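Subject: Sanity check before I submit

Could someone independently write out the structure tokens for this chain? I want to compare against mine line by line before I put it in a report. The sequence has 311 residues.
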Amino acid sequence: MSMWGRFEAGLTKTREGLLGSIKEMLPGSRKITPELYEELEAALLAADLGAPAVAALMDTVRESVWQSGEADAASVRRILKMAIADRLRRPVVVSAPSAVPYVILIAGINGVGKTTSIGKLARLFVHAGKRVVLVAADTFRAAAGEQLELWAQRVGVEVVKHQIGADPAAVAFDGVVAAQARKADVVLVDTAGRLHTKSNLMDELRKIKRTVSKAMPGAPHEIWLVLDATVGQNGLAQARQFHEMLGLTGVILTKLDGTAKGGIIVAISDLGLPIRYIGIGESAEDLRPFDPVAFAEALLGEDESADSFHQ
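---
Independent answer below. Compare away.
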């Protein structure tokens, strides 16, 4: 399957729910009514786009319909597609573009696909010609280090790890120092996703962040949060908490192919966080750089004539 095919297939559940609602609401040239706007608003909320985004999108739809007089399903869909893409265009600020190695701290709770995402990221960087070092700083979960080693072998990169139970900050420090010595281009630091309390977890992550800066002034250059798209609004709460504590610079959203609420991308973006990558399947190729236009296109389908909606 082509890259576009995998991307479109990965959003099938969300697209079928949202697009199906729009088709049902707007057969032919149905007259726009206040009740119809309420139905459309409910459909967008059900896709987890988030209340602020939905309110803004509905304002855009109302204004466009008022100006053009076009209110069929295809027209409304085109309006939404453009508005969603515009809303998702967040500038990506690279803190130190010339830093070598470029250190990226990866955070996220257990079960979101964090370590797997790191392996897939390493593959993407290797394919871009970069020398990558992985750092196994999740020393509280035995499987995490083993999983990272397997990915390192699979994509042909080096990994720095200590024994289970070692100080995660010390592992991160050693990993960055080793990456500098080995003239790596990119360092991906895996971190713990669960400690005894959320407070302990955030304290540990802040410690890692401080320690990495001692190994290399200015590092980490990026802090990315991995989120599971299937948890919906709970993921939004995680993003808020991690951003407040760590100062995130981006989000990786996984398991988009397993949810009917892929609109959570819009809600997360509204926090001011750029979506860097999305996971739309299980294979290594299914972690893709995020493209707002491609996402809106896959979410709402390719343009068709209005008649095709009610044949």
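---
OP: Matches mine. For the report I'm noting this point. The first strand starts at residue 102 and ends at 107.
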